[in-house]
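Example record used in the benchmark description.
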Amino acid sequence: MSSREHPLFTIKNDCQDCYKCVRECPVKAIKIEDNSAQIVPELCVACGKCYKVCPVRAKQDRDDVPRVKNMIAAGEKVYISLAPSWIAEFDNTTKEQLLTAIKKLGFAGVSETALGAEEVSAHVADFLADKKEGVFFSTACPAFVEYINKYMPDLTEDLTPVLSPVLAHCMLMRDKLGQDIKIVFVGPCIAKKFEADRNKDLLNSSISFRDLRRWFRETGINYHTIEPEKGIDFVYKKAEEGRYYPIEGGMIETIKPYGKTNHVYMMQLTGLENIQRELADIKGSRPDYPIFIECLACEGGCVNGPCTRNHKSGFEKRARVLKDAVKTDMAGKRKPEEDITKIYQEKPVENNNYSEDQIKRVLAMLGKYTVEDEINCNACGYDNCRNFAKAILDGKAEIDMCVSHIKQQAQRKANALLKCIPSPIVIVNSKLSIIEYNDYFVNEFWDDEEHGDIYDRNNLIGANLRDFVSFTNLFSASLDLGEDVKRENARNKNKLYDVMVFNIEQKQVVGGVIEDVTKVEIKREKIAEKAKEVIEKNLATVQQIACTLGEHMAETEVLLRSIAKDYAADDYDKPNVTIRNKRDD
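Model output (structure tokens):
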């Protein structure tokens, strides 16, 4: 079966690689492939837990609405088997409004799955009547049955040999309405798609409450405000106590009225995780009296199924179901109408057995060499490090899923960088306590007299940065602003430093790269002094030249003025003389 044919699948491009589905999947039916969490159909029980918890809706259930639309478009008489949990799902809506809205979609009618539940209870009561000892499990929940067959195959023989309520209902409907009708289940369950796929002669398809609401939206049908069709009701007949089934203990509530089961001890388990825990050692503690256990994969019952809206409390949902259920004189007196016997076959998942050496080799790749190294943090999604190692060997998990391993790698890389950078580096938290540093920092700022009595030179983790440098205001500013800060020529004692402070975790952790520029600045000062000396000498020379030139120009000016004056005097004495230059000649 391909991933898209399976009831659940992953939209690869939407997967955010958060491993939440791995953590939540009770059977670890998730394979990390190309950084995407893909569902493994052979391992999946379609409980829908991954569908519920995926934060980006990358997990999707198979859309069978187009198949149903095709049946209607082909002129088939298509009926709905409506799960009794509808009463908790479609609030502020009357039965008549919902049935009218469904009929407008083209369905021939709607019948209650709870009728099949009543048929199942009658059969189970007869089955338990003569049991003297042993443990027996309900088969109403397809996800639970799938789980037992795959993961606890030794208990398959203890499943009560009857069909599920929806398949029993399909038999009843076909007998009453015709063998050629088409039947579609509508409810909160994804695992019902398993039943539709495997029992096409009875159940033609399965869609969810969410699918139905989406269908209403697409066709513009408002089931809250629609005018109910006069006299509309469930076809065939109305259910009564069978409406208890979608809450935990509901099936037991319908069996107890049969007096023939008074000698049977009854209990209920909901949630696959709880079922796993409670049934882990059941084979080793067989009681000498009969016990019937009602098991539902969804914690709290079907009212909390994966395809339900979760904005209402469990109490409110249960209360609505209890109020809707009807107890009549027929409770405990029903006679089975159909032969709904079914013997379940185990389909055990084959687990690979790995040697201790194989497991240890993988653990070593994760940096886990001792039992103490196996911290079993569950961040990867697996219960412990050894199960994670087995998943890696199975090809279901990747080494990079281990948070501690990634952290160690990052730490090693950071340490290598700290050692290689030939400048003092220090990393501090919001309290200016040192959380990381390199040897250059110690060599530059350690003072035996000042620090020797307070700190250990070989371990400054936790030391206060204020005790080592005077420019901690740069670190505080970076922490307060959440921005990088750079300062040239920050002074510490008799030295100058260029300091760059950068954010690692905004307003929580910052790092500083410190460069001693004292020698550079001294060279600059010397160059500046030399330049100043040269400038001053040049200026003096220029001034001297200017002064000498000034004196010479002054003397020249006096001489020229004197000559000009003398010439001028001669001309005034001889007015008829014409003075010509060579050009006149």
